[in-house]
Structure formats: C-alpha cells, structure tokens
Amino acid sequence: MKAAVYVGDKTIRMEERPLPAPGPGEAVVEIALCGICGTDLHIYFEGMLPPPFVPGHENVGTVYALGEGVEGFAVGDRVAAGPPGSCGRCYYCLHGRPSLCVDGFEQTNGLRRDGGMAEYMLVKDARQMLYRLPDNVSFEDAVLTDTMATALRGLAQSAFRVGDNVVVSGAGPIGLSIIQFLKLGGARHVTALEVVPEKRRLAAAMGADVVLDPDDMAEDLAAWLVELYGGVGPDLVVECAGKARSLELCLRLPRAGGQVLNLGAGGEPVTVVPAMLALREISLVSSLAYTADEAKLCLDYLASGRFCTEGLLSDVIPLEELVERGFERLVADRSLVKVAVAP
Ligand SMILES: [Zn+2]
Ligand SMILES: [Zn+2]
Fold this sequence. Notes:
This protein is of the alpha/beta class. The chain has 2 domains: about 1-145 and about 290-340, Quinone Oxidoreductase, Chain A, domain 1, CATH 3.90.180; about 160-285, 3-Layer(aba) Sandwich (Rossmann fold). The protein has helices at about 40-45, 90-95, 105, 125-130, 140, 145-155, 175-185, 195-205, 215, 220-230, 245-250, 275-280, 290-305, 320-330; strands at about 1-5, 10-15, 25-35, 60-65, 80, 120-125, 130, 165-170, 190-195, 210, 235-240, 260, 285, 315-320, 340. The strands form 3 sheets. Strands 3, 4, 5, 6, 7, 14 and 15 form a 7-stranded mixed beta sheet that branches. It has a 6-stranded parallel beta sheet with strand order 10-9-8-11-12-13, sandwiched between helices. It has a two-stranded antiparallel sheet with strand order 1-2. Helix 6 (about 145-155) crosses helix 7 (about 175-185) and helix 6 (about 145-155) crosses helix 13. Bound molecules: zinc ion (2 copies).
C-alpha cells in the first residue's frame, strides 16, 4: 500500500508498505478521506512529534479487515476512526475525561501510531476508536467529525449557558463549528472575529450575528463589545485562531467574571498580565480532543441535517500531492478551511 511517511526535517516520503494485519481487538480501515489538521502542520513545519510515522488523525473509510474478538463491526462498514485512544482503566478514563488518558496518546493514529495518510490504517482498539457512519452521511461530511467534536467538547467544558453572548476569534474549521453549536445551543448573540474575508463570509453563513475583522477595530474592539453586550461585554470568548495575539486579545474581552475558552492551542508564548485577569475574575479553560460519545453526537447532527457543512471542506487532493497542495498551500492560502487527502 501507499503511505506518506513523515521522516522529520519538513520531509514526507512516499513509501510502498505491506498491508497491516489486524491482531485481536484491532481493525484495518481502507481510508477514503483523511483531513489535514492544524496539528499536522505543526508536525510537518515545526517537528512537533518525533519521526518517523504516517500522519493523519481525521480518518474516514471502510472496514477492510477485523481482528479476533471485534464485535459490532463488519467488513465493509463505513466508519470514522477517531483519534482519542483511551485505556478505560486510568484515573482520567474512570473520571469521564478519556481524552486525557495516560496512554491514549500512544494509541492514537497519526500522532504516535501510523495514521490515515495512507491507503490503509491499523486501528489498535476498534471498539473504542471506530464509529459507524449513518447511511446518509457522506465521507466528505464525516471527515469533519474530528473538528466538530473538538469544538463540541470545548463548549461542553466551558461555562457556556443558554442566553449567553459569545465572541469567537478565528473562523477556521473549529471556529465555524463553534459558531454553529453556539446557535444550536441557544446563544443570545455571537460575534465572530476573523481576518480572512472568505472566512468572514462563512462565519456569517454559519449563523454569526456580527462578523468583524479585528484588525479594522484595533483598540476600539473591547469598548465596542462592552457597548454591544449590555455595558459589560461578552460572557464567553472562544479562541480558535491558535495565534498568540488572538489569545491576548481574547483575554481582554470577557465581562468581569467571564471566561475564555482556549481551543486554538497555538504553540507561541503569550503575554498575560495576571493582575488584569484577577481584577476582573476572568477564567481560562482549555479543552483537548473529544470522547466517543461526542463524536457520535456530531454524526447525529450531520445525519439529521442540523449542522451545515457547506464550504467547510475546501478541497480533496491525492496523497501524492500532500505537501504542495496540502501542507504548503494551507499555510499560503488562508482562505482554505479543511483540505482532505484521498489515498
Ligand atoms: Zn485534528
Ligand atoms: Zn486511560
């Protein structure tokens, strides 16, 4: 089978590899689509994880082979293979936080184990890591489950309540998902901040009530939001851009007692004045990945047509063009939302 192997030093090598064979509890998935995530860009450009491995954790495809003892799946089933591995036994798994599992990361396709930027992928724990796709959900929509579920879990872990006024900074795949979940979840008003015009258009289409270019507003933005939101400011601010200056801005925006949700998870250091947070009792909450239940909930939202995917999958490219039309283009052309690879 063909596989795109990250070998370090901004290099992907196309290799011909033997088909993986599933052991007990494992499955082999024939990959239909694999989404390129911001994490993959950090791996490729910044060497975030040690090589060599096959990247790709946003995977959909069909079950090709099943190991002994895998129940509930059959060869030919259309599935999403979610990233969060979880042992089911550690402190975090037993306390409802499987995305923090102490050895889940080691099992996760595309981060430690070989992922979906290949024709086939071995899934270590089929029972926990595979989700069957509803018949009416296409691979093109299902490949968005990973970003959708990351957004959904973020919101579920925040202080968001029905009737809240919310600001979302960054309208990439996660930000656009957050906007939709906020509207589904009963937000009173949503302001989206985005510097790229095409993404501003999408943010409005996904239901943001006001969409602004933060660079146009500069220092006036915080005061403008105070005025817009009852003289106090937004209840919740969600950082989805993954940029230091976005998080720095977000921390200045909530009303006193409000919250900032860190979903962008950028790698740059951020300047924070703790006193400014303390004086207004601003809290910061972070969220990582998602649980199996949250992934299934997202598939239900897709199946019932309540989540709009239009404009989210910008392009599908062949595996051989992963670097030029994937990684490099995603950095150069910021109007792209999600690009997926079809091995
Ligand atoms: Zn991802
Ligand atoms: Zn665990």
